[in-house]
Amino acid sequence: MKLPEARGEVSAVLIEALRREPGRRVLPDASLVRSADPYGDDLQLALYLCYELHYRGFDRVDGAWEWDPELLRVRAALERGFLAALRADVPVAEDVGSALDEAVLEPVDAEGVSYFLRDEGELWHLREYAAQRSLYHLKEADPHVWVIPRLTGRAKAGMVAVEYDEFGAGRAERIHSKLFADLMVDLHLDTSYGRYLDAGSGQMLATVNLMSLFGLHRSHRGALVGHFASVEITSSPGSRRLAEALKRAGAGPAAVHFYTEHVEADAVHEQLMRHQVVAGLLQVEPDLAPDVAFGIAATGWLEDRFGEQLLGAWRDGGSSLRVPLLEADGERKAGVTGSQDRAVVGAESSRRSRVGDSKEWAPE
Fold first, then answer.
1. pLDDT higher than threshold 70 for residue 352
2. Residue 8 phi, psi dihedral angles, 5° rounding
3. If you write DSSP's letter for every residue of 49-61 in order, what string do you get?
4. Cα Rg for the chain, rounded, in angstroms?
5. For residue 359, what are the CA distances in angstroms to 36, 127, 190, 319, 364?
6. Which of 55, 63, 203, 253 could be joined to 309 by an S-S link, Cβ 3.0–4.6 Å?
């Protein structure tokens, strides 16, 4: 995975540091971090870079950076800003049961990304959606593994059961990240890990950063359980709509299969998360209930922001991506033409606007 382009001062200083050996660098100072928008592209990219060192790392970046004390101090400052903003902005239900019930409520007005894609989405919309989601789905369930050693008894057993399914139940070809890569092949997308980091929006980065933040800290184990419960219990209805969208758009069978697999698997996972993991955790550690509720609420809140970013761009006739897919991958060679090109015009216009308005934007 290559280091991405910077999106502001914090990420620029951090990227420049990562190109050098630990100990021979200048890292972002505290005042620079404090001044960054906690939800903005610059801070979210910087945080994503710090977290990615705990996953697969970056090409030509020294592995010693993962536990560099100075970098960990920078990461802690980034986390404090992000978490403080979420604590201030996210409405949280009074109890876990109410939080779970609110999470599974389907909107009466039938709005949202999966509804749009099912009813109006074209193939280029689905390709953009997959490119953005690849920042998580190519490492699906990895952030949640960190909570397993922090659980006991019923909660641990239930969590391992769910993760066993996520990782293919012992079959490499059924690992969910592999199934998503197969979906990307059907949509003529590059399956390289992290390929679309430059293209992904800050809103998408925030959704991935949330689970990494919760997963890396034992103190946030309750919030991570809430996050994973929210993901699993809300997955089936949306996955069904996305499968229908892909069928209608003429995507290949592997693309459709990824979401039909989640319709079935996550219906079972919902029950395991509710009655084994969440209930088991709170039976042993009832004081973690507010953290579980916060994890559920923060997950939904950030997902809503991401959905608003996607729909806002698409309904304006433009791309949701920072880098158009045609520029990123040369899709004309893959035979993707026609209606998809309309998104490129909007994306190019959007990109020119960012170039004029902010020095943070840098094209590939």
1. no
2. 165, -175
3. HHHHTTTT--TT-
4. 20
5. 14, 28, 28, 20, 14
6. 203
Backbone torsions φ then ψ of 102, nearest 5 degrees:
-65, -35
Compute the average pLDDT of residues 165-193: 96
Q: Which pLDDT does position 327 carry in this prediction?
A: 59
C-alpha to C-alpha distance for 144 and 229, rounded to whole angstroms: 11
Task: Return the half-sphere exposure (C-beta side, CA atoms, 13 A cut-off) of residue 225.
Answer: 35
For 316, which DSSP code? Answer: T
- Structural contact between residues 66 and 72, judged by C-beta atoms closer than 8 angstroms: no
Instruction: Evaluate if pTM is beyond 0.90.
Output: no
- CA 83 to chain CA mean position, Å: 16
- Give the number of C-alpha atoms closer than 13 A to the C-alpha of residue 59, restricted to the C-beta side: 8
Buried b (16+ CB within 10 A) or exposed e, 74-96: bbebbbebbbeebeeeeebbeeb
Structure tokens at 327: 């520029």
Sequence-ordered list of residues with C-beta below 8 angstroms from that of 172, at least 6 positions apart, any chain: 178
Length of the chain: 364
22 pLDDT more than 50: yes
- d(C-alpha 199, C-alpha 326), whole Å: 11
For the beta carbon of residue 339, count every other beta carbon within 10 angstroms. 12
Longest Cα–Cα distance in the chain: 57
Residue 111 exposed, middle or buried by CB count within 10 Å (0-12, 13-18, 19+): exposed
Nearest Cα to Cα of residue 127 among 176, 187, 182: 187
CA-to-CA distance for 211 and 89, rounded, in angstroms?
18
Note the pLDDT of residue 92: 96
Q: What is the pLDDT of residue 25?
A: 75
**Would you say residue 288 has pLDDT above 50?**
yes
Q: What is the mean pLDDT of residues 349-355?
A: 35
**pLDDT, tens digit (0-9, with 9 covering 90-100), for 182-195:** 999 999 999 999 99
Residues 6+ apart with CB under 8 A from 271: none
Written as six digits, the tokens of 299 are 């997950």
